[in-house]
Batch of 3 targets.
Target 1
Amino acid sequence: MKTIIILFSSLAFILLGNSAPAPVLDFEGNNIRAGKRYYILPTLEKEEYGGLDLKVGKKPCSDGISRSSADDNGLSLTVNPVNNKKGLITVSTDVNLKFTDSTGCNESNVWKLIYEKTMKRYAIVLGGVEGNPGQNTLYNWFKIAKAKNGYKFVFCPTVCSKCKVKCSDIGFVTDKDGVPRLAFSNDPYVFNFYGVG
């Protein structure tokens, strides 16, 4: 009888241990930490673009997030999880994403999702609310998921149990001005984290 209980306990420990979400790692294999600054750069060396930046146009602050030139790391950002007790970022956990560099915009640097009529899809802009998880901040929460050779952004928040959410990968979609912008996409943007400083 003791053997069965020990085996059952060992099996339960293994199963429960494997159910914990994996930590998100930077390019060097270090854990991503809440509040630390990172550049988001494409995984493929043949990519013709650098990091993330605001769209250049008449209204860059409200026109969304695009790509910087190939030799530019773009804007750095922080990743802040819904539960910030340990400061560790794990895969498929709700997080706020926030540019840390000065953008010159009046609104906050926190990412949020809006429906972009001209693109006929949901796209990412600035002006979100950091923290305060729930129905009122639903569109400010994203997830980081594992992808081939790196990670991808996903919109599928679980901060509101009674809310109905349309989940999607996030990738670059060309807008009416011919500029690639982060938006709902079947072709996710695959990237790695690079620590700043």
Target 2
Amino acid sequence: MIRFIFYLVLTTILAPFFVGTAQAEPYRILDNNIWVYHDLFVERFGMDPENVDNTLSGARGVAIRLVPLARQRCHQTDSGTREEKCYPSWQWLLDLYIDIDQDIGIVGDSPRQFKPWRSSIYFLARKNPELRKRWEDVFGLKGGRLYLEDGKGKRREVPFEIFGYKRPIKDGLMMIQARINEEIILADPGEKRIIEFSDSTGKLLHRVTLPQSYWPRFAALRAKYAAITEKNWKGGVEKDPHIWVYTKQFAEKYHMPQENISNEMEGAMAMAFRMDSWGTYSHQKFSTPERLNFPNMELWDIYLPENAKLYYADPTIDNFYDGFHPSDYFIHEKTNRNDWDGTYPHLIAGEGLKTGGAHIYREWIYKRRFKIFNWVKTDKKTRWSGGPIYNQMYMQPQVLQTDFIFLEEFDGLSRVGADQYLVFSDMNAKSLRSDYLYESKYHKSRIPTPFMKKSLEYRKRIMDKKRALIRMKKKRSQAGGQNK
């Protein structure tokens, strides 16, 4: 609940960045999913009855959405040269809700079932194919296939990549998250959409048939995002949006470019900073493709030594991922339980996922001025100040089969300073004290100054472009109103 309140407050704070000035009208995250579900979702969760279609077979609910990825997808031009044309990258996602007792062939430790396609790990794996294969084997989630079937029973397979799995996401349900492409959306509504799950031998375990009444409802969504085409979500190469820094050993082991090596790095093997897109918002004018493609979330990926001491309330947790507003965020269950309760089977119901966090500390000069008659004295003292940032993702080395712990932290950047540190904590009140940098019994990492400077410049460029776009649209709108 605390984390939900934090996100809600954050979106309110970020509102002025989208519109230039604060708005009096409500500003909140919009459920951008198109839903279909059984009566169960109305009875148990209080969802809208208009989305009920009990012809949905093999699943209790389905949600599909189009999301911006805040990075560029670049295609070679038709000229035959090496020139590229880049487009903002978008992705179609599908969430599938199935009864918890149904065997769909996913085995192993369910918290480990994740493919990190939005983080810097995705781009690290592109340079290290052996790592990518190893992680895909570890993360599992194989066996799901999506088919289009015409009236004569002829099938063709369409892309369907499972990247997330929550068990149970709500009482009696598990949720499977998959990446799809627009072929399933734009195909003839009369064609059947069938998802099948098989075991390792290919034996069919479970079949889901999506209702035919579902697909005409996507026409309004595509009209809203008419500027988004196949080149935004298919083919080409997605460019790495991260600002990187790492040790020489990390660069050599994982085949990373030499220009990002830093001798200032202490306590970490690598760091990567990016800005990502939050999602859609309650007002149409905030949810245009142009605005959504401008990132507004600041994320740090931290690669720590495998022996780094971190705080976690439950020592059995070796992996977690909050995700970027999957559809379960918008399930309005009638009880007071929050979205994170019960996500992981080994947690006691109601406890949720309790973890520590981190603080960015920077050194600053505290000045005091004394004036006695005509004599002025300035007293300078060095102090440390810091603010918390919050865990988004955490994976242990045994999950990744690597020599590092992977963390993704979510919050704003500090100012550039000569010495800045990322200090991990249990997030209690004492952690906010200025002397905690020295007292902390948990891991500390020094942040290289050039890396922090480049990250801040990256953020400024994005925010300047966003504000320029908003001003330009405002002028056009005003000019259009005057011409009427």
Target 3
Amino acid sequence: MTPLTIIGLVAGVMFGIGALAAVVRIIRGPSILDRALATDVLLAIAMCALGAEMAINRHTDTLVVLLVLAVFAILGSIAIARFIGLQDES
């Protein structure tokens, strides 16, 4: 095994643990803000994992997927912030 393979495996395990913790927070989160933050964290972990995979394998094939995930993260955060803002006003 090359050092790059070992680093990739360690990074994959760390991304997996982080994603599992985020999913647990999405399921158990007491408020919608906890769930929204955990969803943002999960999207960030997915984007970091895709970026790491692209760096390790030296390609840009999944760059479009990375950009789409970033757009979903931004739009989701804005939508939830507006929803929470409407609830606070009433």
